[in-house]
Design brief:
Blueprint (H helix, E strand, L loop, with lengths): L7 H13 L2 H8 L3 H15 L4 E4 L2 E4 L1 H9 L2
Helix pairs in contact: 1-2, 1-3, 1-4, 2-3
Amino acid sequence: MNLAGLDMNLVVALRALLTERNVTRAGERIGLSQPAMSAALARLRRHFGDELLARKGSGYELTVLGVVLLDRTE
C-alpha cells in the first residue's frame, strides 16, 4: 500500500471518495465531474489492487483497505 507513488491529484480524489463514499458527492467536493471521479476511482482500484469502495444496496461501503487508507490520508 504505497501512497508515495500516487499522483497528488489521485490522493485528493482518494480522500474525497473514502470520506464521502459516493462518487458524485466526492467529485463535487473537489471540483470534478462524476465521469472524471469514476475514472479516478478506476485508477485508484488498479493502483491498490482493491475495490476500495464496495457497492452495498444503493450506496458504497469501504473495504478493509479503504478503512486503512482513510486513516492514512487524514
